[in-house]
Amino acid sequence: MELITYPFVETFAGIQGEGTFMGMGATFIRLAGCNLRCAWCDTTHSFDVDRARRLTVNELLQECSLTQPLVVITGGEPTLYNLQPLVTAIHKLDKRVAIETNGTNPIPAEWDIDWVTASPKPGSNYAINCRPNELKYVVDDRLSVTDIAADRVPPGHVYLQIESCRPESARKAYKMVVEYPELKLRVGIQLHKILGVE
Ligand code: SF4
Description:
With 198 residues, the chain is an alpha/beta fold. The protein has one domain: TIM Barrel. Helix 3 links the parallel strand 8 and strand 9.
């Protein structure tokens, strides 16, 4: 059987700064490669799959300081790879596994991921082809209320993420929450940036 390897970019321990688990200690694992090229992407260093080290599950976990209760697999776009072996190994360490995805790829149920955060991207890339637990939308000039797929997650699990603490973004998020109460939106912040611990 072929041994699965993952293109590894980096790992670090910190806090989950966004969404439902905001403030919780988390170990982040970033994998390389993405199927999108968003203009504002702040993780472009994860694009180059060829330059990333290919690590087996055991090698990857040895790189990580798995001291935190939550492990967040992010990218890039981590659903480009079969995550089942990695998630199974992390579960054996009694940690919960969350994933951050752009939502464009299906996530098989057998991967057994505990929490899926999808951040749909503007334009045609707003497709959501997985079953997320929560949605995060960056509130920029392009975001329209018609883009928000609140029916895809339980009520109260859509976060309007303020873009880089911009006041215009904050005002727009605030207005959307107040003007569309039926969508049960929430304003989302980046706690790690506010605390200055990113
Ligand atoms: S989906 Fe995420 S990682 Fe990929 S290009 Fe867009 S912002 Fe960057």
